[in-house]
Each structure stands twice: as structure tokens, then as C-alpha cells.
Design a protein that fits this description.
Bact_Fimbrial_Adh_Pro, alpha+beta, about 190 residues, 9 strands, flat, Immunoglobulin-like, three-stranded antiparallel beta sheet
Length: about 190
């Protein structure tokens, strides 16, 4: 009987050692996050919105600072909590760069062609200007001024305007841009 116990202990020790080596750590995963009071929900249509700036004649964009007609767009917020008082928005993107004798403007978003590249048939010396409802220019990757929100509102909108602005003599071509936005609630 003691031989059986000894054999059983040896077998258990070997099995334990084998299972330990089978469970060796090869890496680690960190889970992060926090539980928060959801400030507001961005409406589904606002999550992927198209703003058509239209076809603008190059003759209208022949000098630095020339602007096209503004087009209004909005980001709709739903079910804001009681703790939300204001929000600022950051539109991501690259700064438009002038070519030739163009004049730099760090508030303009770079344009590109339909495939997302800055080559091919992309217009040059033009960028996209975005302003808030008070007319303040929003620069790429910079937070806007805080905009007042109504706590507990079922829906409310943040309004913006977009238009082309020339950095110099604009050349013809596609003038598209895509921007991701982030909202910080206060």
C-alpha cells in the first residue's frame, strides 16, 4: 500500500510539473477602461456625415485667402446626462500646405483625391476651413472652444461651417478631405 502511495505521489508530481510547463506565460494582455456616466450619445447620422462643398471655379480661388461659399453641417447629440455642461470638439487631419508662392494657413485642412491620396488629380493651394457657429476657425487636431450644452436634453446640435480657402493660385482637381472627430465633455 505504501508503494502505491509513493507511486501515486510520484505520478502526481510529474503531472503537476508537466501541466506547469504547458501553462508558461508567452505574453500579457492589459484590459483598461473606466465606468463613466455617458455624457451624450452622438446620433447615428452624425457619426458618418457627408458635406458637399460643390464645384468651385478655379478663377474664384485665384488669390491667397479667396473663399468659397460656406456649407453648414452639424453633429447631433442625444440624451445628454445631467452632469454635462459643455463640449469641445477636435477634428483630426493634416494641415494644408501651400505650393509655389502660396501662403501657409495652419487652420486649413489638407485636401486629397477620391482614393485618399494627395497625388494624381488633387487640387493644390487650397484647403478646407472649418468654423464653429460663432465663426471661430478650428485647426486640425486642436480642440474647439467649449460649446454650451443643455443638460438632460433629449437632442441638441453642434453647428459648424466648412468651405474651401485658397492658399494661393489654386489648381484644378479633386479637393476632398476626411476628418475624424472627438468630443470632450465638461
Amino acid at each position: 500500500m505504501s508503494t502505491n502511495k509513493t507511486a501515486l505521489l510520484i505520478a502526481l508530481s510529474l503531472a503537476s510539473a508537466a501541466s506547469t510547463s504547458a501553462m508558461a506565460a508567452d505574453g500579457k494582455i492589459n484590459f483598461t477602461g473606466k465606468i463613466t456616466d455617458a455624457p451624450c450619445t452622438v446620433s447615428i447620422p452624425s457619426q458618418n456625415r457627408d458635406v458637399t462643398l460643390g464645384n468651385v471655379p478655379s478663377s474664384q480661388m485665384a488669390t491667397a485667402g479667396a473663399k468659397s461659399e460656406s456649407k453648414q453641417f452639424q453633429v447631433d447629440l442625444l440624451n445628454c446626462s445631467a452632469t454635462v455642461k459643455s463640449a469641445s470638439i477636435t477634428f483630426g487631419g493634416s494641415v494644408a500646405t501651400p505650393s509655389g508662392a502660396g501662403v501657409a494657413d495652419p487652420t486649413l485642412f489638407a485636401v486629397n483625391s477620391p482614393d485618399g491620396s494627395a497625388t494624381g488629380t488633387t487640387a493644390s493651394n487650397v484647403g478646407i476651413e472649418i468654423s464653429d457657429s460663432a465663426g471661430a476657425m478650428l485647426s486640425p487636431n486642436k480642440a474647439s472652444a467649449a460649446m454650451t450644452l443643455t443638460p438632460k436634453a433629449a437632442s441638441q446640435s453642434l453647428y459648424f461651417n466648412a468651405r474651401y480657402k485658397s492658399l494661393g493660385t489654386a489648381t484644378t482637381g479633386d479637393a476632398n478631405a476626411t476628418t475624424d472627430f472627438t468630443i470632450a465633455y465638461q
